[in-house]
Design the sequence.
DNA sequence: GTAGGGTTAG
């Protein structure tokens, strides 16, 4: 158009800027900006709004803000444009400031700040804003708002508020669009209710069912340790003619991993490019290395590390460290830990896993050394915490804590369980505990880990036979894993623990993770 | 003609 000499008007410029933004062509964008100035359209509100977005998305926040300030008649769209740019560029502080300066925030503004909270994983903050919006702003939520709010609930594994959102959208007859469908499936999956996730999945209208909804189901099942069900679902999907993307395939590998299906995993991994036109990416290699490592094929895992077209990242070294722990391989463990400490010095989990490896090999001087390193470098173990939700109340537990109103009963329950546990073969794994206290004190602490307290509370606070659902902020500890398996049998209860990585369904003395985690 | 939402991996 330009070369034909057709003059661009104020209606064409916004689309051109949008195209520059989408293709990240900042050079062209600046040229077009020049044309705007030359042709005298630099006061048009639409033109300026689209320029705000262009500059912000290309990282030129200062210029973007300058253009924003120069808009003669700023509308709510101008404010929202900048607001969303701040949110997407992780400048949440600036976003909040801008939001507070707005005289009349509309639904898009609210959606932007709520999405911003979710992005930072400040789930409670997101829900708090959501409530404030409903109560005080006179703006009512739309499907965008609800999908962010659902994501906040899912991220926190908090089914109750999510369910209320579900009820709300039914009452308002909003119907399930693609995003709400995924949001609900993921909510139920992440809060431990796979049956409900499946029910929602089944009622998503066909045209709203996307590869993302399928992936959420398959990934959810994998996280719950239902590896074979996940693969069944994958086959069902293929039968429907839906093509997997790279995320679906990560979940498929993860499903094989948790079901111990090494051969299937290898088959999927080596044929994914041919069958599904998805080239193995870093994350697929990391999964495959994890699978091989867990299965004890450490040499094969290392070979893949050395031959893959990527530099080993934290996920890869983490997988190797985990494998080293399971198979008690001190050499590999220390190598992986060293790499990880370089890559992620701020995480305490690496030191702890390595200490566990030393401990299980009886290398107490190694354990002591790590304890010293942690002390000197000020790496603090994040305190383990567990939660149990009853009705809409959340009960929190910390190791050895007695402050819960029913503390006495909880400790009595654990005491009562100690004899049947011992008879069932439970031996405290004192060596896995790193607290800097005497052996006897250690056994006591171990027996009062937060997840054990939460389970004991579940036993006394829910009716006989009801499933017990616990959440934990770290990986479940090995000793607790063993103990809870036995408790599920002794007390005839299904116990579901969501740890930082996945779900453990304990039933009749076994765990759905197959002790593979 | 300008602004906003979803799935994965240690």
Sequence:
């Amino acid at each position: 158009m330009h070369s034909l000499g057709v003059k661009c008007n104020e209606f064409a410029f916004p689309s051109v800027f949008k195209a520059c933004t989408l293709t990240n062509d900042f050079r062209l964008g600046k040229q077009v900006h020049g044309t705007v100035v030359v042709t005298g359209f630099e006061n048009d509100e639409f033109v300026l709004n689209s320029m705000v977005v262009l500059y912000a998305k290309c990282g030129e926040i200062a210029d973007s803000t300058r253009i924003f300030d120069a808009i003669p008649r700023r509308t709510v769209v101008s404010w929202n444009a900048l607001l969303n740019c701040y949110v997407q560029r992780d400048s949440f502080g600036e976003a909040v400031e801008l939001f507070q300066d707005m005289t009349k925030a509309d639904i898009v503004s609210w959606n932007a700040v709520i999405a911003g909270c979710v992005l930072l994983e400040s789930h409670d903050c997101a829900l708090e804003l959501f409530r404030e919006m409903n109560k005080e702003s006179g703006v009512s939520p739309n499907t965008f708002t609800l999908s962010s709010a659902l994501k906040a609930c899912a991220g926190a594994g908090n089914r109750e508020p999510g369910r209320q959102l579900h009820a709300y959208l039914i009452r308002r007859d909003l119907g399930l669009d693609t995003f709400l469908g995924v949001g609900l499936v993921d909510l139920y999956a992440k809060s431990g209710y796979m049956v409900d996730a499946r029910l929602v999945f089944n009622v998503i209208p066909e045209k709203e069912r996307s590869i993302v909804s399928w992936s959420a189901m398959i990934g959810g099942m994998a996280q719950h340790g239902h590896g074979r069900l996940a693969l069944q679902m994958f086959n069902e999907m293929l039968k429907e003619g839906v093509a997997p993307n790279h995320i679906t395939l990560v979940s498929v590998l993860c499903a094989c991993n948790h079901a111990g299906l090494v051969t299937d995993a290898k088959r999927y991994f080596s044929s994914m490019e041919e069958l599904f036109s998805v080239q193995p990416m870093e994350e697929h290699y990391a999964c495959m290395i994890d699978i091989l490592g867990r299965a004890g094929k450490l040499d094969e895992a290392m070979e893949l590390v050395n031959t893959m077209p990527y530099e080993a990242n934290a996920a890869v070294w983490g997988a190797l460290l985990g494998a080293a722990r399971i198979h008690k391989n001190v050499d590999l463990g220390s190598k992986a830990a060293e790499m990880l400490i370089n890559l992620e010095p701020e995480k305490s989990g690496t030191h702890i896993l390595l200490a566990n490896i030393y401990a299980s090999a009886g290398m107490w001087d190694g354990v002591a050394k790590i304890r010293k390193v942690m002390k000197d470098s000020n790496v603090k173990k994040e305190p383990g915490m567990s939660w149990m939700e009853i009705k809409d109340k959340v009960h929190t537990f910390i190791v050895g804590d007695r402050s819960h109103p029913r503390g006495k009963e909880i400790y009595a329950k654990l005491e009562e369980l100690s004899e049947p546990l011992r008879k069932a073969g439970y031996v405290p794994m004192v060596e896995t505990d790193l607290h800097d206290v005497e052996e006897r004190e250690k056994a006591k602490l171990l027996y009062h880990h937060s997840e054990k307290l939460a389970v004991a509370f579940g036993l006394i606070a829910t009716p006989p036979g009801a499933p017990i659902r616990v959440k934990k902020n770290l990986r479940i500890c090995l000793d607790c894993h063993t103990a809870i398996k036995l408790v599920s049998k002794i007390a005839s209860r299904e116990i579901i623990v969501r740890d930082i990585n996945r779900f453990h369904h304990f039933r009749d003395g076994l765990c759905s993770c197959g002790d593979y985690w």
